[in-house]
Write a structure and sequence with these properties.
The complex is a heterodimer of chains A (253) and B (324). By secondary structure, chain A is mainly alpha-helical. Chain A has one domain. In chain A, 79% of the residues lie in helices and 0% in strands. Chain A contains eleven helices and no strands. The longest helix of chain A has 30 residues. Chain B is of the alpha/beta class and 324 residues long. Chain B has two domains: 226 residues, Rossmann fold (3-Layer(aba) Sandwich), CATH 3.40.50.300; 68 residues, Alpha-Beta Plaits (2-Layer Sandwich). In chain B, 36% of the residues lie in helices and 29% in strands. Chain B contains eleven helices and 14 strands. In chain B, the strands form three sheets. Chain B has a six-stranded mixed β-sheet with strand order 6-7-8-3-9-10, sandwiched between helices. In chain B, strands 2-1-4-5 form a four-stranded antiparallel β-sheet, with helices on one face. In chain B, strand 4 and strand 5 form a beta hairpin. Classes of the chains: A mainly alpha (253), B alpha/beta (324). The interface between A and B is medium-sized, with 26 and 31 residues. The complex binds adenosine-5'-diphosphate and magnesium ion.
Chain lengths: 253, 324
C-alpha cells in the first residue's frame, strides 16, 4: 500500500506545481477549444466527400481530436523530467524509501488528470457545436483518453530520463509524431485514403483506437473494432508503464 | 557474526569499485575503496575534479550499484537492504535537490511525506530547520528565487528533514561567494554539534576540507591516497616552509651552507636575498638557525615559518596540484 501512498504524494506535488502556473492551465484549456472552433467547421464541410463516414460530421471529428489529445497531452512531458533531473529532484526522490514505480506513477497520474479536464472541456464545447452522442459513449471516450495519456506520458518520461537531453528528446518525439498523426486517421478518416495507404495505416495501433472511438460515437459498442481498439490501448498502456518503471529503476544501476 | 563492527562505525566500505561503460570504452571511476567513518564526525572526502568523489557517494547512498565491493551504512547492507540505508541517511547532491519553480514549503513537505512523516509534523520540522539555517520566512517563496547560499542551505534542510543519523553532502559550497561559504561552513558544523548528525562531505577545496573536517580522506584517480586528520596529513609533508630574508644577496652562499646543515633540511632554494627551504619542526629549528647564521656573520632581516597546507599535502602525495 505504500506504493499507493507514495504515488499520491508524488501526484500532489506535481499537481500543485502545475496549478501554480495559471498561464499553463489556461493554455492547456484553450488548445482543445481552438481545435473545435477553428478546425471543426472546416472538416464538417467535407462530410459529402466520398469515403467520409455517414452521419453527424462532429461525431466523426471529435474522436480523432480526443485521441490526438491523449497522445500529445502525454508525449511532451519528458522535457519536464529532464529539467527535474537536472535540478537534482529525481535523485533526491530516489534516495527516499519511496517505491520507484510511485515516482513515475504519481507524475503520470497528474498528466492524466490534466488531460481528462481538457477532454471534458473539449467535449462540452463540441456538444455546443453539434456533437451528439450518449453519455456512455463519452465515458468510454474518457477511458480511452486515460489509457493513451498514461501510456504516452510514461513513455515520454522513460525517454526523457533515458536520454537526459532535450536535444535528443525533441527529434525523437518529432520523428514519431508525424507518422502517428498522418497514419492514424486522427484528422481525416483513413477510409478516405487509397488502398495502399489504408494497408499501411492498419499496422498503426492508434488508427484502431480512433476507429473504435468513431464506432462508439456512431452508436456501435458491441463490434469487433471497439474491442480491438480498446484492447490495443490497454496493452499499450501497460507496456509503457512497465517500461517507464524499468527506466526509473535502471537509474540506480 | 564474525566480522564485528564497532558500534561507533557508521560507514564501513570494502573494495568499492565502479566502472562506467561509455562510447570511448570502460571508465574506472572508482577503483576499489576501503573506508571507515566513525559516528559523530565530520569527514571530508577531498580530491580534484573527476577523482571519483561523487561516484563513491552515489554508491554509498544507493543511487549507483557498485561494480564490486560492499558496504554497511548505518548498520544496513548496501546491496541487501538499500531501503534500510535510504531511511537512515540524508543526501544532498552536487546539483541540488529542489525544483526552481516549486515553493519551498511544497518541496519540504512532499519530501518529508515520502519518509512517512505526516504533513503537520513535516511543516513543524521544516519551519524549525529553516529557522536554524537562517531561512525564516521563505516557506512560500519559490526555490529559484533564493540566493545561491540560501538555496544550498535549503538543500541541507531537505537532507535533514527525516532526522537521519548520517548526511552526505556533495560539494556543499561549490559556486558560492566567500562570505556564503564561511556562513555555510558554520551551519555544517552546527549540524554535527547541535543535531549530532555524522557528516560526510566531498570537496575539491583545501580550505573547506581543512576548516570543516575532523578526518580527511584524500582521493585521486579513484583511489584513496591518504587518510587521517588534517594535522596528521600535514605532518607527512617533508616539513615546514622556512623563509629567510637576508640584508644582501651577497650573504646568500653562506646562508645556503648554513641551511643545508640543518637536520632534515630539503628543497633549499634561493632567489635574490630570499632563502627558502623545508625543515621538520621549523619553529624549533629557527632560533638555532639564526644563531648559526650570526656565527657566520649573516644577519637575517626577516624570518618566517609556515605550516604546510593541504595543498602541499596533495602535491607531496600525488605530485600534482589540486587545481590541475
Ligand atoms: N555516468 C557516468 N558515465 C560515464 N563516466 C562517468 C559517469 N559518472 C562519472 N563518470 C566519470 O567518472 C570519473 C569520476 O567522476 P566523479 O565521481 O563525478 O568525480 P568527482 O565527483 O570527484 O569530480 C570521471 O572521469 C567521470 O567522467
Ligand atoms: Mg563530483
Amino acid at each position: 500500500m505504500t506504493v499507493l501512498r507514495d504515488t499520491w504524494i508524488v501526484f500532489k506535488r506535481a499537481m500543485l506545481l502545475s496549478l501554480q502556473n495559471p498561464a499553463w492551465v489556461i493554455i492547456g484549456l484553450i488548445q482543445p477549444i481552438l481545435y473545435i472552433v477553428l478546425f471543426g467547421p472546416l472538416l464538417t464541410q467535407m462530410a459529402n466527400v466520398p469515403g467520409f463516414p455517414p452521419g453527424n460530421a462532429w461525431n466523426v471529428f471529435v474522436p480523432g481530436i480526443l485521441v490526438q489529445l491523449g497522445i500529445f497531452g502525454g508525449a511532451f512531458v519528458g522535457f519536464g523530467i529532464i529539467s527535474e533531473w537536472r535540478s537534482g529532484v529525481i535523485d533526491r526522490m530516489m534516495v527516499t524509501p519511496a517505491a520507484r514505480s510511485a515516482l513515475i506513477a504519481g507524475r503520470v497520474l497528474r498528466d492524466v488528470v490534466v488531460l481528462l479536464v481538457q477532454s471534458v472541456v473539449l467535449i462540452a464545447v463540441a456538444i455546443g457545436f453539434g456533437l451528439d452522442v450518449p453519455v456512455s459513449a463519452l465515458l468510454l471516450a474518457l477511458v480511452l483518453v486515460t489509457l493513451l495519456g498514461a501510456a504516452f506520458s510514461a513513455l515520454s518520461y522513460a525517454a526523457g530520463l533515458a536520454l537526459k537531453s532535450e536535444d535528443a528528446l525533441a527529434p525523437l518525439l518529432n520523428t514519431l509524431a508525424l507518422p502517428i498523426v498522418l497514419l492514424s486517421g486522427i484528422l481525416l478518416p483513413m477510409s478516405m485514403a487509397p488502398m495502399w495507404l489504408q494497408h499501411v495505416s492498419d499496422v498503426v495501433p492508434f488508427k484502431h483506437m480512433v476507429d473504435a472511438l468513431r464506432a462508439i460515437f456512431q452508436g456501435q459498442i458491441w463490434v469487433a473494432s471497439v474491442g480491438i481498439g480498446f484492447g490495443l490501448a490497454f496493452v499499450f498502456a501497460i507496456l509503457c508503464l512497465w517500461l517507464g518503471t524499468q527506466v526509473f529503476r535502471s537509474q540506480t544501476r | 557474526m564474525t566480522d564485528q563492527i564497532s558500534t561507533d562505525t557508521i560507514i564501513r566500505a570494502r573494495g568499492l569499485k565502479r566502472t562506467f561503460k561509455t562510447r570511448g570504452g570502460m571508465v574506472e571511476a572508482v577503483k576499489g575503496i576501503d573506508l571507515t567513518v566513525e559516528r559523530g564526525r565530520i569527514v571530508g572526502f577531498l580530491g580534484p575534479n573527476g577523482a571519483g568523489k561523487s561516484t563513491t557517494l552515489k554508491m554509498l547512498v544507493t543511487l549507483l550499484t557498485p561494480t564490486e565491493g560492499q558496504a554497511t551504512v548505518v548498520g544496513c547492507d548496501l546491496r541487501n537492504d538499500p531501503v534500510g540505508v535510504r531511511r537512515r541517511i540524508g543526501y544532498v547532491a552536487q546539483n541540488g535537490t529542489t525544483s526552481p519553480e516549486a515553493k519551498v514549503g511544497l518541496e519540504i513537505v512532499s519530501h518529508a511525506e515520502l519518509y512517512g512523516i505526516p504533513r503537520a509534523e513535516a511543516r513543524r520540522r521544516g519551519e524549525e530547520l529553516l529557522g536554524a539555517f537562517d531561512l525564516d520566512g521563505v516557506w512560500t517563496r519559490t526555490c529559484g528565487s533564493l540566493s545561491g547560499g540560501q538555496r544550498r542551505r535549503l538543500d541541507i534542510v531537505m537532507g535533514l528533514i527525516h532526522r537521519p543519523e548520517l548526511v552526505f553532502l556533495d560539494e556543499p559550497s561549490t559556486g558560492l561567494d566567500p562570505q556564503s561559504r564561511a556562513n555555510l561552513w558554520s551551519h555544517i558544523r552546527g549540524v554535527r554539534d547541535r543535531l549530532g548528525t555524522t557528516v560526510f562531505l566531498t570537496t575539491h577545496y583545501m580550505d573547506e576540507a581543512d576548516s570543516l573536517s575532523d578526518n580527511l580522506l584524500v582521493i585521486d584517480h579513484g583511489k584513496i591516497v591518504a587518510e587521517g586528520t588534517s594535522a596528521d596529513l600535514k605532518s607527512r609533508v617533508r616539513g615546514d616552509a622556512m623563509t629567510l630574508t637576508l640584508r644582501s644577496p651577497d650573504q646568500m652562499p653562506g646562508a645556503v651552507a648554513v641551511a643545508q646543515a640543518v637536520a632534515g633540511a630539503g628543497n633549499v632554494q634561493s632567489e635574490g636575498n630570499v632563502l627558502r627551504f623545508q625543515a621538520p619542526n621549523g619553529a624549533m629549528v629557527l632560533p638555532g638557525l639564526i644563531r648559526d647564521l650570526g656565527a657566520a656573520g649573516i644577519e637575517p632581516i626577516g624570518a618566517e615559518v609556515a605550516r604546510p597546507t593541504l595543498e602541499d599535502v596533495f602535491l607531496t602525495l600525488t605530485g600534482r596540484s589540486l587545481r590541475d
